[in-house]
Specification:
Elements: H1 5-27, H2 29-38, H3 56-81
Protein backbone atom coordinates (compact mmCIF):
# COMPACT_ATOMS: atom_id res chain seq x y z
CA UNK A 1 0.00 0.00 0.00
CA UNK A 2 1.48 3.32 -1.07
CA UNK A 3 1.45 6.42 1.09
CA UNK A 4 -0.79 9.03 -0.50
CA UNK A 5 -1.34 12.72 0.13
CA UNK A 6 -4.45 11.76 2.11
CA UNK A 7 -2.25 9.80 4.53
CA UNK A 8 0.15 12.70 4.94
CA UNK A 9 -2.70 15.18 5.38
CA UNK A 10 -4.32 12.96 7.99
CA UNK A 11 -1.06 12.60 9.86
CA UNK A 12 -0.44 16.36 9.88
CA UNK A 13 -3.99 17.10 11.03
CA UNK A 14 -3.69 14.47 13.77
CA UNK A 15 -0.40 15.90 15.05
CA UNK A 16 -1.89 19.40 15.01
CA UNK A 17 -4.99 18.27 16.92
CA UNK A 18 -2.82 16.50 19.49
CA UNK A 19 -0.67 19.62 19.94
CA UNK A 20 -3.74 21.82 20.44
CA UNK A 21 -5.19 19.29 22.90
CA UNK A 22 -1.96 19.17 24.90
CA UNK A 23 -1.74 22.97 24.96
CA UNK A 24 -5.33 23.31 26.23
CA UNK A 25 -4.78 20.56 28.82
CA UNK A 26 -1.63 22.24 30.16
CA UNK A 27 -3.45 25.58 30.40
CA UNK A 28 -6.25 23.97 32.46
CA UNK A 29 -4.39 21.04 34.01
CA UNK A 30 -5.53 21.58 37.59
CA UNK A 31 -9.19 21.92 36.62
CA UNK A 32 -9.07 18.89 34.33
CA UNK A 33 -7.22 16.75 36.88
CA UNK A 34 -9.67 17.75 39.61
CA UNK A 35 -12.62 16.85 37.39
CA UNK A 36 -11.04 13.48 36.52
CA UNK A 37 -10.49 12.75 40.23
CA UNK A 38 -14.17 13.53 40.87
CA UNK A 39 -15.02 10.94 38.22
CA UNK A 40 -13.01 8.34 40.14
CA UNK A 41 -9.89 8.38 38.00
CA UNK A 42 -6.85 8.43 40.26
CA UNK A 43 -4.04 10.59 38.92
CA UNK A 44 -0.64 11.17 40.47
CA UNK A 45 -0.22 14.56 42.11
CA UNK A 46 1.44 17.08 39.82
CA UNK A 47 3.79 19.78 40.89
CA UNK A 48 5.07 17.86 43.90
CA UNK A 49 8.74 18.67 44.38
CA UNK A 50 11.38 16.81 46.31
CA UNK A 51 12.14 19.22 49.15
CA UNK A 52 15.65 17.84 49.60
CA UNK A 53 16.61 19.06 46.14
CA UNK A 54 15.26 22.58 46.63
CA UNK A 55 17.50 25.56 47.32
CA UNK A 56 17.11 27.66 50.45
CA UNK A 57 15.43 30.38 48.41
CA UNK A 58 12.91 27.93 46.94
CA UNK A 59 12.18 26.50 50.39
CA UNK A 60 11.62 29.99 51.78
CA UNK A 61 9.22 30.86 48.93
CA UNK A 62 7.32 27.61 49.49
CA UNK A 63 7.14 28.30 53.25
CA UNK A 64 5.73 31.78 52.61
CA UNK A 65 3.20 30.40 50.13
CA UNK A 66 2.02 27.83 52.66
CA UNK A 67 1.80 30.45 55.41
CA UNK A 68 -0.36 32.59 53.12
CA UNK A 69 -2.64 29.64 52.40
CA UNK A 70 -2.96 28.87 56.11
CA UNK A 71 -3.82 32.51 56.86
CA UNK A 72 -6.48 32.51 54.11
CA UNK A 73 -8.05 29.32 55.46
CA UNK A 74 -8.09 30.72 58.99
CA UNK A 75 -9.85 33.87 57.76
CA UNK A 76 -12.36 31.77 55.80
CA UNK A 77 -12.97 29.66 58.89
CA UNK A 78 -13.63 32.74 61.01
CA UNK A 79 -15.96 34.17 58.34
CA UNK A 80 -17.92 30.91 58.16
CA UNK A 81 -18.21 30.72 61.96
CA UNK A 82 -19.69 34.22 62.29
Amino acid sequence: MAVTTDHVTGFVVGVGAAAVGLYLYKQNQQKVDQWLRQQGINLPQTGVKDERGMSLEELTREKERLEDLIAEREVQGKDAAS
